[in-house]
Specification:
Oligomer: single chain
Largest sheet: 7 strands, mixed
Distance between the termini: 33 Å
Radius of gyration: 25 Å
Helix content: 25-40%
Structural class: alpha/beta
Length: 365
């Protein structure tokens, strides 16, 4: 998170100089408070209104801490606001560092988290007004973010969030992903229930559904759920084998076609796995880099220890392993469910497994 701190007062600048060091943030303050070490420390001095600095800060930083009054900040940022998916986190710290206030992009932008960091470093009291944080319940627009979950179907995000904070019947439908998503130090409230599948959810009354799944839901499923929001956990492992020199385009085409045929979301792919003979395979490396997927490889001995549906003497002759894609997917998924043992398409062999999460990760009820 790239952070900027701006100050326009004498006391605020004193606090900002120390805070900038602790947060490793860029610092901006008025030239009349210059100490003479600004060039050495990379501090930016400005004349005139700080309002003129804000458009630049909004474009270049993920988080902005302003040692300015809350009312002034609200008036200054109003003309340059975009939306909560793109606006930076904005935190206000009062002149005496008594209160750190989350002002803008509290969840998605990370302002609430930044507010706690600023408060912890300055001794200020963190002021958070986001309903889900205050009530210690599910933040719908941040649900599972610590695990890397993303929401893919967010048409009803506002309605679902309202149902959660208004304590209406809400279903968390979890078909895959990390189970320890309840992170508060209190029991899950009675109005939030869980379901193991969309099929179960369709038979359960609810006002909103938070659906955690690697599957592509069909229209009938989406229409049958009330105010659904769909989250994609990083759950799918792709086991890949290919002939030497196979182009990245062919590998990715096979991946895309296979996921589509199985109604699986590409957003839920966590990694690619193969035999260590392929650790320098340009096509696989290219696909992995393009999609930001980790690429894991295993030795023939490791692969031979994994269960496999069909052992191949031909594959063993050339690789020392009785199979590549299926056991690689199984091992990389930590012994998870192999939903596609093996599919051969042109120069590519693909297998798919779902990551298995341990019992230590069970959520608090």
């Amino acid at each position: 998170m790239r952070i900027a701190i701006a100050s326009i007062t004498k006391h605020g600048t004193e606090t900002a100089r120390k805070l900038a060091e602790d947060l490793q943030a860029d610092l901006y303050y008025m030239r009349k408070f210059a100490r003479g070490d600004e060039d050495e420390r990379g501090i930016t001095l400005f004349d005139g209104s700080v309002r003129l600095q804000l458009p630049k800060l909004f474009k270049e930083y993920d988080g902005i801490v302003l040692n300015i009054s809350l009312g002034a900040v609200v008036r200054m940022i109003a003309p340059i606001l975009g939306d909560k998916k793109t606006d930076p986190a904005v935190v206000v710290l009062d002149d005496r560092a008594e209160h750190a206030i989350s002002v803008l992009s509290g969840h998605i932008g990370g302002a609430n988290e930044l507010t706690h960091r600023v408060a912890g470093l300055t001794g200020a009291r963190p002021v958070i007004t986001t309903a889900s944080d205050v009530q210690k319940t599910i933040p719908v627009d941040m649900f599972g973010r610590e695990f890397g979950w993303t929401f893919e179907y967010d048409r009803f995000l506002t309605q679902a969030a309202a149902a959660v904070v208004n304590e209406e019947p809400v279903l968390v439908v979890q078909e895959s992903g990390e189970p320890n998503w309840w992170k508060h130090d209190r029991p899950m409230p009675d109005h939030i229930k869980t379901a193991a599948s969309v099929k179960e959810a369709l038979q359960t009354p609810h006002n909103a559904a938070l659906v955690v799944t690697h599957r592509l839901l069909n229209a009938e499923e989406l229409d049958g759920l009330h105010y659904p929001v769909v989250y994609r956990p990083k759950t799918i492992v792709l086991g890949i084998g290919c002939n030497r020199g196979t182009e990245a385009e062919e590998i990715e085409q096979v991946i895309n076609e296979t996921l589509r045929d199985l109604a699986l979301s590409k957003t839920s792919v966590q990694s690619i796995a193969s035999i260590d003979l392929k650790k320098d395979e340009a096509g696989i490396l290219s696909v992995a880099e393009k999609n930001a997927w980790p690429f894991t490889t295993f030795s023939p001995e490791q692969l031979n220890e994994a269960p496999i549906k069909e052992r191949s003497e031909t594959v063993f002759k050339y690789t020392g392993a009785y199979g590549v894609s299926e056991p690689a997917a199984y091992l990389a998924s930590r012994g998870g469910e192999v939903v596609l043992p093996k599919k051969k398409s042109g120069n590519v062999t693909i297998s798919i497994a779902l990551i298995k999460f341990g019992t230590k990760e069970r959520r608090k009820e």
